[in-house]
Structure formats: C-alpha cells, structure tokens
Amino acid sequence: MTMEFSASPAQSEEFAQWLYGLQRSCQQPPLKPRMPLYIGGAHVGSVEEGVAQRLLQQHFFRQEAGQLVLAPDSATMVLQDVALWLRENGLAAKWRNEQLAVLDGSGQTHATVERAVIRTLGMTSVAVHLFGWLADGRIWLQRRALDKATDPGKLDTLAGGLVAAHEPLDVALERETWEEAGVRWPQVKNVHKGEMFVVQCPIDERIGGYMIEQCHWYTAQLADDVLPVNQDGEVAEFALLSPEDMVQAMLAGDCAAEAALIFARVMGMETNRSHGKG
C-alpha cells in the first residue's frame, strides 16, 4: 500500500526537511564510549565504559582485548544475574519479567535477557508494528499511555511492541494487535509486510542506554465497523486521522519516531537505511 497526501510545494518541502532531521536523529552513535559485549565469539551488544567497569568488578564478565565476554553455555544465567544487579543499582528500565532474544549481527540467538536491561547492554531488540487503515484512506492510530518510557502521550501505529524470545514475528504481531487494539486477526485483511529498518540512537542516559531496534512493519485494512479497544492499559486513546492530519501531527512533534518513519515509508518517501550494533 502506498498513500499520497495533498500538500502545497512549500508544505512538501517542510515535511521533507522535517523527515530528514528525524532520520538523522534515529541514526546516532553512542554519547559515550562503550565496551563491546560478546558471547563467545559473537558480538551481541555494548556497555557504557563506566557501567562496564562496575560490572567487571562484580566478576560477571571476562575482559579480553577491551571486550566484555561471556561463555556461551552460561550466558543466559549470567545475564539474569547482571539484570538483577543493574536493577538494584538503578541502571535498568521498568522491570517486565519478559525475556528477549540476545542476537548477533546475523540475527542468530545466543541467549535471552530481561527486557529491562536490553538498552543498558546495547543489545538489539525486535519490534513489530501494524499500520491500520480504512478503505477511504484514513488511518487508525493509538495515543501512547503517559507512563510509557518512550514517546509518552504521542501518536503511534495502531499496534506495536517488542517480540519476545523465541516468538515468531507473525505471532507477536497478532498478540500485540489484540493486546493494544482489541482487534482479532480475522478482522484485518490485505496485510502487507514492509521493508524492515533499524533505529539506533542513545536512549535513557540515566541507565547508559543505547537503542538498536529492528522495526518490522505491516499495513492492513480494517473494516469500517472495527473500533479499536485497548486491552493492556498501555494506550490512552485511539484516533482516526486523514493522511494530511497525520502529516500535521508529525510536524507538530505529536508522533512517535518509529510510527513517523513507517508512515513515510507507506507514503513511498525515501529514507535512510542503516544496520548495525552499538
């Protein structure tokens, strides 16, 4: 699906400049030096040097040639201890009791880790997003709850979230669509998968966070009589916007970054693509 929006040349130029700035902000190096984190010979993340030294003092890792190293056979167990220590020392995000896959650059899983510390450890997360639209071109969006750690209160895709360890993408997408929007998969049609992109930038400086996120996004048509209803308490409300209104919301800073990047792709606008590891 490709959308178009009606705009004057000046408005189109304003949006193009804004989008370029957003793209740059979503492709930024770490603010401070970080030590690479390895499981065996696989590069799986990085840790801000100050935090890394504290972890080394706790003997969680070996240090080899300026790298933090874990043995493959004990990595998940040690990472659980690391996560608990980081939480006790104020270096973790909100504790979720959710395990995410620890991935290398090729996408191979080497361990699992508590979601709350994936940014502190500079590991790659995997997210799914559903961009829902109606036959007349209007777009269903959610407004993120005010207590969300990232982009609180901003407009976002109809549904989206992180993929759990060992969870297939399609299963995660169906789960998030129900949990966030109360929409069952048989209620959507014309589902298309877009091209995955990666966001990498500093996040939550308090915990030495660095975000690397694979964004897998899908478009789907909803029937006119489908009304989203949140199930998990993580959505404040839903809104039905025209593409023109969506653009204005983006320019006003009222849209989550990943949702804005997805919308730009739905409209067929050029974007920067980058892949990497912090």
UniProtKB/TrEMBL annotation:
The protein's required cofactors: Mg(2+)
GO molecular function: hydrolase activity; isopentenyl-diphosphate delta-isomerase activity
Top-rank taxon: Bacteria
InterPro entries found in the cross-reference section: NUDIX_hydrolase-like_dom_sf, NUDIX_hydrolase_CS, NUDIX_hydrolase_dom, PH_domain
Keyword match Isomerase: yes
Domain (Nudix hydrolase): residue spans on this chain: 121-268
EC number: 5.3.3.2
Keyword Nuclease: no
Pfam families associated with the record: NUDIX
Domain PH stretches: 1-27
Record's keyword terms, sorted: Hydrolase, Isomerase
Name used for this protein in its record: Isopentenyl-diphosphate Delta-isomerase
Organism: Saezia sanguinis
